[in-house]
């Protein structure tokens, strides 16, 4: 029996997690689910966004299924107590340095994308984002009175962007290996024309390329990459980049697929133990309305079955069920278009479960 830590979190987190859990239960797998509070919810109940009991559960589990954390009402809290520190803390504590964000435009959603259908039809790119380094974790950071710069004496804030060679090497190996299993093209995204961290990034990626001569490598500056993603997204196969650039580019890529509610993710350590979460946040603007798209979370559960639990057939059943409900014309509000049927979060989850159980009945 494998143990899954289920951490729904805040905002739409509990709504989308309920649907993902429903789908996992429908598969009748040897899994034990254990729930814990995280983010703002945990702050309310225990005074910390990542309480020791939640961290212990995540560390002991075979995999973590995570909803989302955050709410505007916590914006004035000191940073270490804000809900977002929970996901950052989990990534760091579990060593989840490799974040895989597949941006796939399902055939049925070609018209839901913000781009022209011909630009996104058949789109299948994989963004690999380094997840435990960069400016999100770099020290020192803080507030001080400026002693130099344009305004000496002014209130000033600073963060530190940093990367070490081994950090870049390990994510680069993950990216080349992923590209090898796909179309053998890797784009490394940086800002080496300005940033020293990016120059090291580019040098290391180029060096590691020597071990993967069968994969075609190109380098692109992040501003150009942001532009190319909306100009000709299908030119990309695998993209590897740092934590902040990957955070931004993956939200951009989400819209190529129709909605950020479609983009799952896997965050892996060196042994493929992982945390699985949608690429979006807690969406406080739509929380409690029953309209959030649960598919990114459901597809994240499929990634969990594939990468951490060695249950690829079960994962494939979820993916097939998602395609089948989309083919039926069912759409949550974010991907709805004329001629399709608008459904709620719960109805979408129910439809995926029905598609799974129907397939099971036909097979048995
Ligand atoms: N991993 C995590 O837990 C993350 C947490 N956050 C936190 O989430 C909170 C909200 O951040 P935002 O910048 O608004 O980003 P967001 O991703 O939560 O929402 C951005 C927009 O996308 C929509 N959206 C997101 N998920 C959706 C879904 N499943 N179905 C339909 N529409 C969806 C929202 O309604 C909103 O209009 C903040 O506190 C932020 O720090 C943000 C990103 C990741
Ligand atoms: C707390 C943030 C770093 C989370 C986020 O935006 C993400 O991982 O995509
Ligand atoms: Mg993000």
TrEMBL record:
Purpose of the protein: Catalyzes the oxidation of 3-carboxy-2-hydroxy-4-methylpentanoate (3-isopropylmalate) to 3-carboxy-4-methyl-2-oxopentanoate. The product decarboxylates to 4-methyl-2 oxopentanoate.
Family: Belongs to the isocitrate and isopropylmalate dehydrogenases family. LeuB type 1 subfamily.
Positions annotated to bind substrate: 91, 101, 129, 223
Residues reported in the UniProt entry to bind NAD(+): 281-293
Gene Ontology molecular functions: 3-isopropylmalate dehydrogenase activity; magnesium ion binding; NAD binding
Gene Ontology BP, a term: L-leucine biosynthetic process
Organism: Pelomonas aquatica
Enzyme class: oxidoreductase
Main location (coarse class): cytoplasm
Name of protein: 3-isopropylmalate dehydrogenase
Reaction catalysed by this enzyme: (2R,3S)-3-isopropylmalate + NAD(+) = 4-methyl-2-oxopentanoate + CO2 + NADH
GO CC terms: cytosol
Name of the gene encoding the protein in the UniProt record: leuB
Residue(s) at site: Important for catalysis: 136, 191
Keywords: Amino-acid biosynthesis, Branched-chain amino acid biosynthesis, Cytoplasm, Leucine biosynthesis, Magnesium, Manganese, Metal-binding, NAD, Oxidoreductase
PROSITE patterns the UniProt entry points to: IDH_IMDH (PS00470)
Location in the cell: Cytoplasm
Binding site for Mg(2+): 223, 247, 251
């Amino acid at each position: 029996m494998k143990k899954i830590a289920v951490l729904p979190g805040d905002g739409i987190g509990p709504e989308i997690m309920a649907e993902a859990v429903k789908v996992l239960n429908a598969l009748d797998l040897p899994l034990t689910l254990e729930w814990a509070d995280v983010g703002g919810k945990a702050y309310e109940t225990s005074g910390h966004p990542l309480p020791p009991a939640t961290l212990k559960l995540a560390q002991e589990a075979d995999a973590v299924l995570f909803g989302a954390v955050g709410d505007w009402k916590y914006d004035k809290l000191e940073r270490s107590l804000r809900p977002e520190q929970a996901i950052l803390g989990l990534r760091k504590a579990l060593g989840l340095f490799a974040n895989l964000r597949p941006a796939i435009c399902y055939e049925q959603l070609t018209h839901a994308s913000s781009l022209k259908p011909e630009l996104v039809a058949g789109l299948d790119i994989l963004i690999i984002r380094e997840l435990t380094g960069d400016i999100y974790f770099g020290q020192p950071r803080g507030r001080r009175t400026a002693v130099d710069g344009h305004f000496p004496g002014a209130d000033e804030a600073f963060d530190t962007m940093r990367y070490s060679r081994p950090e870049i090497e390990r994510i680069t190996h993950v990216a080349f290996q992923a590209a090898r299993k796909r179309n053998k093209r890797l784009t490394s995204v940086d800002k080496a024309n300005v940033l020293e961290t990016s120059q090291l990034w580019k040098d290391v990626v180029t060096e590691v390329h020597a071990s993967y001569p069968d994969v075609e490598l190109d380098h692109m500056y992040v501003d150009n990459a942001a532009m190319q993603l909306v100009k000709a997204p299908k030119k990309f196969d695998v993209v590897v980049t740092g934590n902040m650039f990957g955070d931004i580019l993956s939200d951009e890529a989400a819209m190529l697929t129709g909605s950020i509610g479609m983009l799952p993710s896997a965050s892996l350590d060196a042994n493929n133990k992982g945390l699985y979460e949608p690429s979006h946040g807690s969406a406080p603007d739509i929380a409690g309305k029953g309209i959030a798209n649960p598919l990114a979370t459901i597809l994240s559960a499929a990634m969990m079955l594939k990468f951490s639990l060695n249950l690829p057939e079960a994962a494939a059943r979820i993916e097939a069920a998602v395609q089948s409900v989309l083919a039926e014309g069912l759409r949550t509000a974010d991907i709805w278009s004329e001629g399709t049927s608008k459904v709620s979060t719960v109805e979408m989850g129910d439809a995926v479960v029905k598609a799974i159980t129907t397939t099971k009945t036909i097979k048995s």
